[in-house]
Amino acid sequence: MRQIIEERTGSFSRSPQLVEAPAANLRVAAHTTVLHEGDPARRIMEVVEGAVMLTKLLPDGRRQVVELLGPGDVFGLAHDEAYACSAETLTPSVISTHERSALERDPVLAARLLRRFEAQLCVMHSHALVLGRMSALERVAFFLLRLMPEGMVGGATLHLSMTRQEIADFLGLTLETVSRAFSELKRRGLVALLRADEVRIQDRGSMRRLAGAA
User: What domain of life (predicted)?
Assistant: First the structure.
């Protein structure tokens, strides 16, 4: 099994990128693959800190980023006893793991994880709408607004933990199209491109109208 996490004498094996944290949580470095699509599904995982992306490989080798996860989100869904997606950390993260059999023994845990999965499913419905109905410019605007902290008023400076290629894979676009969309948002005065991984929202109202969120 290619997972970074493996069972050995009832504990987790260590690697240079993976160190156990207190309370049975796992501290994982950025850009570490935690689960591989198709591997035997033994655990369900929760993001305690950090950010994780779920990906699937298409038959022609292209990759689709299917979900972005933050603290409180859950991953490790299975199809025919195998993981349905790969999972990779975008930032240094702390991840809590649960044996799948624990869900049968602990109804409170099972109910809590089910509520999280339900909330994430609603977010994925919104993502499907983005991919199916929005233009490239609208998709990038929607993506940036999604990164804004809740309750934020006015402008905001966003740190992008994803590369332009990863953003393209998430939005169903090419790298070139994403780059053009960022440039167009800058030309319109809606954003300021401070660095490759840092964007400031200059006109939140116009961004929301562009993304259909006004």
Answer: Bacteria
Instruction: State which fold the 7-132 domain adopts.
Output: Jelly Rolls (2.60.120)
49: which 2 tokens? Answer: 């800190």
What tens-digit pLDDT sequence spans the chain (214 residues)? 333 433 332 333 334 444 443 337 899 999 999 999 999 998 899 999 999 999 999 888 889 999 999 999 999 888 788 999 999 999 999 999 988 888 888 888 888 888 888 888 888 878 887 788 899 999 999 999 988 876 565 678 999 999 999 999 999 999 999 999 999 999 999 999 998 899 999 998 899 899 886 5
d(CA 28, CA 50): 9
Domain ranges of the chain: 7-132, 134-210
CATH 1.10.10.10: does it fit domain 134-210?
A: yes
What SS3 state is found at 100? coil
CB count within 10 Å of CB 28 equals 28
